[in-house]
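Title: Prediction job returns without error message
Component: structure pipeline
Severity: low
Priority: P3
Assignee: unassigned

Description:
Job completed but the reporter wants confirmation the result is attached to the right record. Sequence as submitted:
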Amino acid sequence: MVAVAVLVMAACGSGSAKERTSPVPTSATTTAVTSGSSTTTATAAPAQTVAPTPAQGAARAQGPPFATTPTSVAGTGSPALLSAVRVGAQPGFDRVVFDFTDHVPGYQISYVGRPVLEDASGRQVEVAGAAVLKVRMAPASGVDLSSAGARSTYSGPDRFRPPGTKVVQELARAGDFEGVLTWVVGTSTTAAFRVTTLSSPPRLVVDIRSG
């Protein structure tokens, strides 16, 4: 079983919000944290600012509506390999981004009750916040098992509390087992969310309404 962790940054944002991101369109100030398939803690990278283009801003405006209902898409093929996890505040929502090296996996995203149990140990996963948004991705992993010997594609802490976000309180890894990668997002309330996927790099983006 492999522990995964977090890269604090937000993808593909816009506007003048403060965000933590890497190669993502947003006009926010971001701080990156590289995460991985071990329980060792990674260090934060320097903050950086990324400005959106008009086309990116338009794409964001045309995103799906916010709701609290579960959302899912089936995944097929080889496991998508996680490379980063990023979080940042945007105008009206907090953004959580999962970066992958090759393609975006299938996903199931919904609010769940406590206790949250880790795959497959069954250990309880604590996460700050009044509500828990579970992000289950499959087939996906933070470790590449396709060649001889396991190669981590994601290294760093398996949990963190991003500063500056309004609704997101904490993120924690809740499993990386047999092609199923799970993270939970602790939120201050059962806020509406929306899910989009992006490319270059492949990203699964979860926006959680904050205002």
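Comment from assignee: result matches the submitted record. DSSP finds one helix and 17 strands in the chain.
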